Amino acid sequence: MESPQTSRHEDDAVLKVMKAGSTFRKVKSRSWKKQRHFRLLDDGLNIWYKSRWAGRGHSTFLVSDVEVVRQGHQSEVLQSIADEYAADLCFTLVFRGRQGNLDLVAETAGEAAAWVQGMRRLILKAKNMDAKERLDRWVCDWFNKADKNKDGRMNFKEVRKLLKMMNVDMNEDHAFYLFTMADKSESSSLEIEEFVLFYKMLTQRDEVWKLFQDYASDGEKLSRSELESILRQEQHEGDGSAKLAQELIDHYEPSETARSQGSMSLDGFQLYLCSREGSVFDGAHRDLYQDMEQPLSHYFLSSSHNTYLLEDQLRGQSSLEAYIQALKRGCRCVEIDCWDGPDGEPVVYHGHTLTTKILFRDVVATISEYAFKASDFPLILSLENHCGVEQQRVMARHLEKILGTALLKAPLGGQLPEQLPSPQDLKGKILMKAKKVSDETLNDEVSDEDETAALDSPSTDQGSVDGPPDPSKKKSTSKMSRELSDLVVYCKSVHFHGFQHAQLHSRCHEISSLSESKARKLAKEAGADFVRHNARQLSRIYPSGLRTVSSNYNPQELWNAGCQIVALNFQTAGLEMDLNDGLFNQNAGCGYVLKPVFMRSGDLTFDPETPQERSDYAPLRLSIQVISGQQLPKVNQKEGSIVDPLVRVEIYGVPQDLAKEETSHIQNNGFNPVWNETLNFVVHTPELALVRFVVEDHDTASRNDFVGQFTLPFASMRTGYRHVHLLSKDGTSIPHASLFVNVSISALT
Prior knowledge:
The structure is a single chain. By secondary structure, the chain is an alpha+beta fold. The protein is globular. It is built from 22 helices and 28 strands.
């Protein structure tokens, strides 16, 4: 085991290499390889890089933006040049969100190893920082950005530029007053310690100070009992308030003296409010808190459509990375679109388009490696099978050989049950969803989505709510391989012939795929029947083929009807994926969310169109006081540009619950805007509702610009004074950007 001294010595050596800088080949394809110079900046937070021909131009990215570093030929791009460059020269930086990978080739193996080791240690260090350390690093980062001449001091001219960078339009006299107050050395410049004081004055929050003063009897600190009173009366923490008060003091109070006295300063109180414990999202719901032993049909599953695509479905790139990204986000149903390929090897791509092709066996190998990284619960492979019988047999062999014992090939207990097994029963298993050979399906259409209307053509008969489609309009058929068919156990794809037919003839292990338009029509015209159907069987919904740019539909409408596998284009950011992330961020992000009890029994008659007819109907009043915002990011990066932020709260759920309310906008202040405006809502079906906080930059002449958002289930909201930690359009966190709100929920009387 290496000693701490050895480890520190190695750290120093690799950081020295990184700070000195290295020239790598940046690789995008076999034919695109360009030299770029990279170095770690002295702050240890940012990587600086530039082209050798870019003159003075350069770019930077944060170490914390990198999720993982892969060594060797561990990307499709680097695998394509494996014959040119040895594995020990190659590495890949994988970024958070939807940003593409950075594939690099070093001049020497030692240089590559130093960067891989150094980046991994810096990422780990950033991940393990507590809230105070993170804030200190954040302050240092601002100092380094403002210190243009790099003399370790900051004059007032640099301070004025800093305020613009920080999204603050402050009166110059007031800015100079704060600068003078912080300049303890009276040198007309600020050193780092003085800058920390300046930053504290700048970020002093009157709304937090007022709450603190309401309970601090001496005006200086909160005793343990006073903090307990806040937790009980304002934060509604209940009987656990006394224990929690001590835990918060131990964890967040920066002063050793205050900690030893069992008290909390204003600094400690603010750290608590900005922490996970002070978040609007219930911390208990971040863990695995739901019953995982219900039948599979009783859960919503995080589900991806055209999983292989990184872009649109006409010309986009098919990539193994797309599967990796979806699986790392907790996706539990991925799609594989298979076609006959050259040399007897099936390929995956969007058929009859210009999308690129990848080998089926490589897709299966990638799934095998990443299937259970984010979740132990079962993964469903939705097979869109366009292959002939011979290549279907090849597919079956690849699936069995590569997935091994993880592939479920027979029912648990040896026979098909009356209800589906649970996620707990199927932990660590991969399930195939495809057609299955029987007398009537031996020559049936083998692709699910081909079964329904191509491009949602209105001329195609898909059957009514209770009637089968016209058999005279059946499409051309292709044969199904028995070897592939035998791998289908609990997800046998069948035609949807209406709810009455399904109730009389269908089995629990049969699943129907429906286009978004067909499913929406069913949800509106026969919502209660759809909910009942989905209590026993799985339904998969997929986007219209007309969505050629891989846009998404609103998944909430189909969750309202109990549809479990509502497949979205994960590669496309926006409202719809915000809702998907909002629903599935709970329950440890395992990709399974238990449906409300009124959707889990075939005897109940819940209809999303008429929620007031529920026997246990209990609407709630939601009141959100939007108090303030903190360190909202700039939208327009032009110097001097500052946001005019407004906050909108949106409710998604059953049709009666759809609502939006927004605050007024604040002129020229993204750093610490204050609204103090209250938005009120009535929520008829809180068990299905999602709440989305959106911040926009107000523009009178054109459409508002997106600044940040956060979406969560209504049932996961905590009441009291809470922070809403904002996410980018890409779903990644925006450092220190938040809203401060006071949430109240009460029965509607």
